[in-house]
Specification:
Length: 159
């Protein structure tokens, strides 16, 4: 049996973080959480690029563009789509989730979904550093693990 998995040790990995200004009170906390994880994994500041976009709807295009950059190993997408604040919640939430998945498949690089989709601002706050943890922190953890996993798979490729 062969088991392949990534670890959480960053070995010079380079990350782009695409973060939405809409609901910045939440997305700013997600960014803090993501940076906290990356710094604790000893990712160097010069290996992190933070890109701000207007809203979650704009994340996929910019994430795909960032993933195409040879200097980026993975992209972390952060934002908050809150049902209470929009009649077109479903459209924005569907497009951002679909678009992020497509960006990963088109580029072959990890593009991590760290976008909250909640019914209320309170629920978003809970997931942005209060009682339900910080989704930015866990998104960054997934990013490190996925880069590590992709490297493992590259190393294990049979000729
Ligand atoms: N963008 C978000 O990131 N979160 C939201 O909750 C939201 N609401 O409520 O509408 C939102 N809208 C803006 C959207 O993402 C685009 O920026 C805008 O439609 C321009 O394309």
């Amino acid at each position: 049996m062969r088991t392949i998995q990534g670890n959480l040790v960053s070995k010079g990995y380079r990350f782009s973080i695409v973060v939405s200004r809409f609901n910045e009170v939440i997305s700013g906390k997600l960014l803090d959480g993501a940076l906290d994880f990356l710094h604790r994994s000893e990712v160097r500041d010069e290996d992190i690029t933070v890109i701000w976009v207007p809203g979650a709807f704009e994340i996929p295009l910019v994430a795909q563009r960032a993933a195409q950059d040879a200097d980026t190993d993975a992209v972390i997408c952060l934002g908050a789509v809150i049902r209470g604040s929009t009649p077109h919640f479903e459209y924005v939430a569907n497009e951002v989730s679909k678009g992020i998945a497509q960006a990963a498949l088109h580029t072959g690089k990890p593009v991590i979904f760290g976008v909250l989709t909640t019914d209320s601002l309170d629920q978003a706050l809970e997931r942005a550093g209060s009682k339900a943890g910080n989704r930015g922190f866990t998104a960054a953890s997934s990013a490190v693990e996925m880069v590590s996993l992709m490297r493992e798979m590259d190393n294990g490729t049979k000729a």
